[in-house]
Amino acid sequence: MNPRARLAGLTMIIVVLCTLGYALVTPGIAWPVLGLVCRALLVQLHGIAGRETLMLPRWVVVVAALVIVTWGVSRAMSGFKIDALCECVLALMYVKIWDRRTPADYAQLLTLSVYLAIGCTVRGDFGPVVVTVLAAPVLLMAAMLHQVYA
Protein backbone atom coordinates (compact mmCIF):
# COMPACT_ATOMS: atom_id res chain seq x y z
CA MET A 1 0.00 0.00 0.00
CA ASN A 2 1.34 3.40 -0.97
CA PRO A 3 -0.32 5.83 1.48
CA ARG A 4 0.94 8.93 -0.34
CA ALA A 5 -0.59 7.94 -3.68
CA ARG A 6 -3.86 6.92 -2.05
CA LEU A 7 -4.00 10.14 -0.03
CA ALA A 8 -3.34 12.18 -3.18
CA GLY A 9 -6.15 10.40 -5.00
CA LEU A 10 -8.60 10.75 -2.10
CA THR A 11 -7.74 14.41 -1.64
CA MET A 12 -8.44 15.15 -5.28
CA ILE A 13 -11.71 13.20 -5.10
CA ILE A 14 -12.68 15.36 -2.13
CA VAL A 15 -11.85 18.53 -4.06
CA VAL A 16 -14.08 17.38 -6.93
CA LEU A 17 -16.91 16.29 -4.59
CA CYS A 18 -16.86 19.60 -2.71
CA THR A 19 -16.81 21.50 -5.99
CA LEU A 20 -19.81 19.55 -7.23
CA GLY A 21 -21.54 20.01 -3.87
CA TYR A 22 -21.07 23.75 -4.12
CA ALA A 23 -22.36 23.65 -7.70
CA LEU A 24 -25.58 22.07 -6.45
CA VAL A 25 -26.29 24.78 -3.88
CA THR A 26 -25.30 27.88 -5.87
CA PRO A 27 -26.75 29.17 -9.13
CA GLY A 28 -23.42 30.04 -10.79
CA ILE A 29 -21.54 27.51 -12.88
CA ALA A 30 -18.21 29.34 -13.30
CA TRP A 31 -16.52 28.10 -10.09
CA PRO A 32 -17.28 24.40 -10.56
CA VAL A 33 -16.24 24.51 -14.21
CA LEU A 34 -12.99 26.29 -13.29
CA GLY A 35 -12.24 23.72 -10.61
CA LEU A 36 -12.97 20.71 -12.76
CA VAL A 37 -10.91 22.10 -15.64
CA CYS A 38 -8.04 22.84 -13.22
CA ARG A 39 -8.25 19.31 -11.81
CA ALA A 40 -8.46 17.69 -15.25
CA LEU A 41 -5.41 19.66 -16.38
CA LEU A 42 -3.52 18.58 -13.27
CA VAL A 43 -4.39 14.92 -13.84
CA GLN A 44 -3.34 15.22 -17.47
CA LEU A 45 0.03 16.74 -16.55
CA HIS A 46 0.87 14.86 -13.36
CA GLY A 47 -1.14 11.67 -13.21
CA ILE A 48 -3.47 10.81 -10.36
CA ALA A 49 -0.75 10.72 -7.68
CA GLY A 50 0.80 14.04 -8.71
CA ARG A 51 4.50 14.34 -9.45
CA GLU A 52 6.16 17.16 -7.58
CA THR A 53 8.49 18.12 -10.42
CA LEU A 54 5.78 20.02 -12.28
CA MET A 55 4.22 21.87 -9.32
CA LEU A 56 4.14 25.65 -9.08
CA PRO A 57 6.91 27.41 -7.14
CA ARG A 58 6.04 28.17 -3.52
CA TRP A 59 6.22 31.95 -4.01
CA VAL A 60 3.58 31.83 -6.78
CA VAL A 61 1.25 29.86 -4.52
CA VAL A 62 1.79 32.29 -1.63
CA VAL A 63 1.14 35.37 -3.79
CA ALA A 64 -1.98 33.76 -5.29
CA ALA A 65 -3.24 32.81 -1.82
CA LEU A 66 -2.71 36.38 -0.54
CA VAL A 67 -4.61 37.80 -3.51
CA ILE A 68 -7.45 35.32 -2.96
CA VAL A 69 -7.71 36.05 0.76
CA THR A 70 -7.69 39.81 0.10
CA TRP A 71 -10.41 39.36 -2.52
CA GLY A 72 -12.44 37.17 -0.14
CA VAL A 73 -12.20 39.66 2.71
CA SER A 74 -13.28 42.53 0.45
CA ARG A 75 -16.27 40.48 -0.75
CA ALA A 76 -17.20 39.56 2.81
CA MET A 77 -17.08 43.21 3.84
CA SER A 78 -19.59 44.04 1.11
CA GLY A 79 -22.21 41.70 2.58
CA PHE A 80 -21.94 38.33 0.78
CA LYS A 81 -20.45 36.45 3.72
CA ILE A 82 -21.32 32.80 3.00
CA ASP A 83 -20.82 33.17 -0.75
CA ALA A 84 -17.52 34.97 -0.18
CA LEU A 85 -16.34 32.25 2.21
CA CYS A 86 -17.26 29.44 -0.17
CA GLU A 87 -15.73 31.09 -3.23
CA CYS A 88 -12.57 32.04 -1.34
CA VAL A 89 -12.20 28.46 -0.07
CA LEU A 90 -12.78 27.09 -3.58
CA ALA A 91 -10.16 29.41 -5.05
CA LEU A 92 -7.68 28.47 -2.31
CA MET A 93 -8.33 24.79 -2.99
CA TYR A 94 -7.67 25.30 -6.70
CA VAL A 95 -4.38 27.05 -5.94
CA LYS A 96 -3.33 24.48 -3.32
CA ILE A 97 -3.69 21.54 -5.70
CA TRP A 98 -0.81 23.04 -7.68
CA ASP A 99 1.39 23.31 -4.57
CA ARG A 100 4.11 20.87 -3.49
CA ARG A 101 2.79 17.90 -1.58
CA THR A 102 3.84 17.48 2.00
CA PRO A 103 1.66 16.18 4.84
CA ALA A 104 0.87 19.79 5.74
CA ASP A 105 -0.39 20.52 2.20
CA TYR A 106 -2.72 17.52 2.31
CA ALA A 107 -3.96 18.64 5.73
CA GLN A 108 -4.67 22.11 4.34
CA LEU A 109 -6.66 20.68 1.43
CA LEU A 110 -8.65 18.47 3.80
CA THR A 111 -9.34 21.41 6.11
CA LEU A 112 -10.45 23.59 3.20
CA SER A 113 -12.75 20.77 2.11
CA VAL A 114 -14.34 20.68 5.57
CA TYR A 115 -14.86 24.46 5.44
CA LEU A 116 -16.47 24.18 2.02
CA ALA A 117 -18.69 21.33 3.21
CA ILE A 118 -19.84 23.51 6.10
CA GLY A 119 -20.46 26.39 3.68
CA CYS A 120 -22.51 24.12 1.40
CA THR A 121 -24.54 22.95 4.39
CA VAL A 122 -25.30 26.52 5.49
CA ARG A 123 -25.80 27.83 1.93
CA GLY A 124 -28.60 25.66 0.61
CA ASP A 125 -31.33 23.16 1.32
CA PHE A 126 -29.74 20.40 -0.75
CA GLY A 127 -26.26 20.92 0.66
CA PRO A 128 -26.57 18.79 3.81
CA VAL A 129 -27.66 15.78 1.76
CA VAL A 130 -24.77 16.13 -0.69
CA VAL A 131 -22.20 16.71 2.03
CA THR A 132 -23.44 13.89 4.25
CA VAL A 133 -23.86 11.28 1.56
CA LEU A 134 -20.86 12.04 -0.67
CA ALA A 135 -18.18 14.03 1.09
CA ALA A 136 -18.31 12.93 4.74
CA PRO A 137 -17.24 9.28 4.25
CA VAL A 138 -14.44 10.27 1.88
CA LEU A 139 -13.27 12.99 4.27
CA LEU A 140 -13.14 10.49 7.12
CA MET A 141 -11.15 7.99 5.03
CA ALA A 142 -8.75 10.72 3.93
CA ALA A 143 -8.26 11.96 7.50
CA MET A 144 -7.36 8.45 8.66
CA LEU A 145 -5.07 7.92 5.68
CA HIS A 146 -3.42 11.29 6.37
CA GLN A 147 -2.55 10.08 9.87
CA VAL A 148 -0.92 6.98 8.39
CA TYR A 149 0.99 9.05 5.82
CA ALA A 150 2.09 11.77 8.26
Shape annotation: globular
N- to C-terminal separation?
A: 15 Å
Class based on secondary structure composition and strand pairing: mainly alpha
Low-confidence segments, ≥5 residues, pLDDT <50? Answer: none
Biggest β-sheet, characterized?
A: none
**Percent of residues in β-strands:** under 5%
Order of helices and strands: HHHHHH
Question: What is the percent of helical residues?
Answer: over 70%
Mean pLDDT: 75
Radius of gyration: 15 Å
Number of strands: 0
Number of alpha- plus pi-helical segments: 6
Explain what the structure shows.
This protein is mostly helical and 150 residues long. It is 80% helix and 0% strand. It has helices at residues 3-25, 30-46, 58-77, 81-96, 103-123, 127-149. 29% of the residues are buried.
Primary descriptors:
6 helices; about 150 residues; mainly alpha
Produce a short descriptive summary.
This protein is mostly helical and 150 residues long. Helices cover 80% and strands 0% of the residues. The radius of gyration is 15 Å and the shape is globular.
